[in-house]
Amino acid sequence: MKRVFLVVILIQFILSSRIVKMLYGQISITEGGSDPHSSAMLHVEADQNKNKGVLIPRLTNVQRNSLNNPAVGLLIYNSDSKRLNYWDGSKWVEITSVEVSVSQASGSGVVTGIGITNDGSDPHHSAMLEVKGTTGGILIPRMTTTQRNLISSPADGLLIYNTETNRFNYYNGTSWLELCGTNVGSSTGSVQAGFGVSISLDGSDPHSSAILEVKSTTGGLLIPRLTNSQRNNIPSPAEGLWIYNIDSKTFQVYKGSGVWVDIGANTIPAPTASSATNVQQTSFTANWTASSGATGYYLDVATCSGFTGCYVSGYQNLNIGNVTSYNVTGLACNTTYYYRVRAYNSCGTSGNSNTITVTTSSCPPACGSQVFMLANMDVGTMVSDHSTGSDHSHQTNDSQIEKYCYNNNSASCATYGGLYEWAEAMQIPNTYNWNDYPTDYTCDPCGSSGRQGICPSGYHICLLYTS
Fold first, then answer.
1. If 0-12 CB within 10 Å is exposed, 13-18 middle and 19+ buried, where does residue 283 land?
2. Mind listing the pLDDT tens digit for each residue in 259-309?
3. Own/partner pairs for 196-202, CB < 8 Å, 24+ apart?
4. Is the pTM for the entire model greater than 0.70?
């Protein structure tokens, strides 16, 4: 590994008419010579024209996977996936992103930045700092959560690598946020950076996998901070150019073809809820569309549209897994309910979906604890009824259940239900259609007494018959 001392870098930068300033061990790379922020070990700022970003090493998947023993927190730009990747100690993680802009200025720009390379080439005109190479990445200050929280008055956009969570953290002006990503592999190789620069207080070498390592447990990294308008004024930005957007409070990377992307924030979209199906007296099926990147969903069901103090028991933030429908049960009949869903993945949880209103089916007629059937009975074998001009019965086979169908058409039973004589319905001998039965069957309309007859198990015929 070729070790490049800080003093050598300073001489090179000064001779190249770029302003590098060192203050109490901190370094600023600026156009106007401003001091580094007190919370930054390295502060890169396009403080005059506000139209530059930072370029970090840009590698393909193959080049990334060839790195030998990458350091925890090593950061590269993946030119295949157009996303930032970092090594978390056991695997490569790809920081999530979402497109936010297709604006850019025209022109070629002027080179005013600093390049850390082994080929002597100038940095890209859109970069205030370019770390160039395909055999290593960049390491920024790595620290614990406790050390991070001890940073006094952190600057908006300050970036560190949290060694406890193995994720990048940044300060958005009011609180620390975590950049999130997804695992993309654990391959490493034998390639070492071959050259590198270390910015530190102890004079130690950079890690073998880092072209630039900024070492500190008391400060972070500041990259150029631009508004939307200033970002869009960067002429012909380089692919992989990195800035902090002070309007959106997010890091953004240029992926080429005129497209800027937000990186690291939870980008999972909220699902869209759709109408309930299979609506019953005590249940319904909730439905929604899938959200890109979701690994599961949370479901809320409530009896009020505001979802405040009115959740159905068991249905507040219910984790239902990676599905797009769910059967909600244990409800009351003829009651209006509201449901909504949220998508989640390892980066966090989306916002709420739209709210769907559904009313369960009407309650069946009831008396006390007794519920009366709403469906027509249709059991037994059809027999034809022929008028004889006097009282008669054709339901005379007591060994089977017999029924009439309207107009002697069996299809009518499927539509209207069967027609049963008294003895047939009670399942007693047919002679008792016109003779007194020796036992009186009485039924408390709200009780459980009575005779089952042709009714299904658990039901009975509720009526009063006396001789």
1. middle
2. 888 886 556 789 999 999 999 999 999 999 999 778 899 999 999 999 999
3. 196/1, 196/2, 196/3, 196/4, 196/136, 197/4, 197/6, 197/9, 197/116, 198/3, 198/4, 198/6, 199/6, 199/27, 199/41, 199/42, 201/25
4. no
